[in-house]
Amino acid sequence: MGLKPSDLCTEEPRFSYLGSWHANLIQIDRRKRLLFVNERTLFDFIMPDVAQAATAKGRAT
Prior knowledge:
This protein has one helix and three strands; from the N terminus they run βββα. It is mainly beta and about 60 residues long. The chain has one domain. It starts with 20 loop residues before the first strand and ends in a 5-residue tail after the last helix.
């Protein structure tokens, strides 16, 4: 990936009643979607039709 140690950051643990959320960019039928999963409850949902500009900026709007 070409990342240097200075490009990485350490995440401080945060308290949340629902736990942490994780997101993965997936492709279904040649279209990008974001899959969100809750660490504690395993609740998941898919955000359809994610624009390339939104994923490049780190947010899906």
